[in-house]
Amino acid sequence: MAIDEDPEGHEAAALASAGLSFMSRRVLEIGCGDGRLTKHFARVAASVLAIDPDREAIAQLAGDLPMVDARPIAVDELVLPAHSVDLVLFSWSL
Amino acid sequence: MVDALRRAHRMVTRNGAVVDVHPTDAPASMEVGAHVIGDVDAGDAPLRHVAAEAALKITVDTGLFEVDTVVGFDFYTYGDTVEELRDYIVENWRNARIDDDVVERAERALRGARVGVRPCVLERVCLTTLRPIARIEG
């Protein structure tokens, strides 16, 4: 398989043009899949919690980006303290 | 969807942001060399995208968030062959398919295209950033 998603980088460019900075931010990503978007900010964020009910995708993300707290759960299973993250990102998951 | 946004509102800091990225309700299309071949049958996806948009609007109308930025962009998925792309869509998109006549026309267009052209599917996507402006207690 040689499927390429967004090789032009339009998605990452849109994040940048929206003025979003992930630098030193605590990020929650909902619907992260295999980490297509996560890889753009995982190394600069203070922390990343990435969730997706797809266990296979989460396993791949965890292998590729070990600094990410990757959990195979849906948003309604997630328990977090109030006001504990700086950015919440719904990645094609709303 | 509204409940997920309410949860996000509780979890995000006062000066934080919630970002939503999802395709618009415009049909995804199969393209070869920038020529539109036909639409992808995305099942109920357009309805889900409309529902996501409605959920965002509800949370804005009810004073939970205000819209900060809206950015549109094109998202392309390429395959080496039309068949590969068709199979990928079927396996990875919920209830989606590419009709046989679209596949046939794409293969014909690909045979007539210059070397190196790859078939692709285009989706129109919208990125919205929201700022929390109110708190729900309890």
Low-confidence stretches of chain A: none
Oligomer: heterodimer
SS class of chain B:
alpha+beta
Q: Greatest interface and its residue counts?
A: A-B, 38 and 42 residues
Can you characterise this structure?
The complex is a heterodimer of chains A (94) and B (138). With 94 residues, chain A is α/β, with parallel strands linked by helices. In chain A, 19% of the residues lie in helices and 23% in strands. Chain A contains two helices and five strands; from the N terminus they run βαββαββ. Chain A has a four-stranded parallel β-sheet, with helices on one face. In chain A, strand 3 (47-51), helix 2 (55-64) and strand 4 form a beta-alpha-beta unit. The radius of gyration of chain A is 13 Å and the shape is globular. In chain A, 41% of the residues are buried. Chain B is of the alpha+beta class and 138 residues long. Chain B has one domain (2-132). Chain B has helices spanning 2-11, 45-61, 82-92, 100-111; strands at residues 12-23, 29-32, 35-39, 65-78, 119-132. In chain B, strands 1, 2, 3, 4 and 5 form a five-stranded antiparallel β-sheet that branches. The longest helix of chain B has 17 residues, at 45-61. Chain B is elongated. The chains are: A alpha/beta (94), B alpha+beta (138). Chain A binds chain B through residues 1-8, 10-11, 13-15, 17-20, 28, 30, 37, 75-76, 78, 80-94, and chain B through 1, 3-5, 7-8, 10-23, 52, 55-56, 68-69, 71-80, 84-85, 88, 118, 125, 127, 129. Strand 1 of chain A pairs antiparallel with strand 4 (65-78) of chain B, so a sheet runs across the interface.
